[in-house]
# Entry
Amino acid sequence: MTDFLIAPSILSADFARLGEEVDNVLAAGADVVHFDVMDNHYVPNLTIGPLVCAALRKHGVTAPIDVHLMVKPVDRIIPDFAEAGASYITFHPEGSEHVDRSLQLIQQCGCKSGLVFNPSTPLDVLEYVIDKVDMILLMSVNPGFGGQRFIAKTLDKLKSARQIIANNGGDIRLEVDGGVTVDNIADIARAGADTFVAGSAVFGAANAEDANKYDSVIAKMRQELAQALADI
Ligand code: DX5
Ligand code: ZN
# Structure
């Protein structure tokens, strides 16, 4: 450990200029593109699908794309996202009738697999499938919308998830999603996260005229993470 990854959520980007927005956050030092897929069924909102993922690849984005499926069911759409250039595909266990099968499907398609846990969802489902999981994603808000407040209980849950990963001995990333800001990212890192989704905190950071608008927020997050690393 520990390579910290910052994953801006494009949910809060300007969709009319999406390619440019993604180029700008990556140029500002982001590591991963977090791609929120919502279906107005599993969550009460509707966003983007494989066509947009493929369009970002076609635009020239080479960074990992972290596809967060907030859809139900999940299996039908997994191969389409793999084909569209997804690097990670994560889903909520509530979205699949057969969690083990869906995890296998993601890996068979050549992607890294992940399970996403809502604030109220226990981590128990990991027990028998952890060998098929490359990423554990803890939601620190209820899924569906950007701009919500971080749920503090997630810090305890991160510690539990970090312990599960340590007990397993596997190479599994621990991601957190929802309400992550410059002010709380260090505490979240100290609790065990290594991958940080941030939507509104990054894309809402500055005025649109400034070409380097994302540099300072990402630099501040890195400073906070460096401080946390010194404490770990
Ligand atoms: C919420 C999404 C998040 C969202 C995070 O359902 O999964 O990725 O974009 O947004 P912020 O960082 O604004 O809470
Ligand atoms: Zn997300």
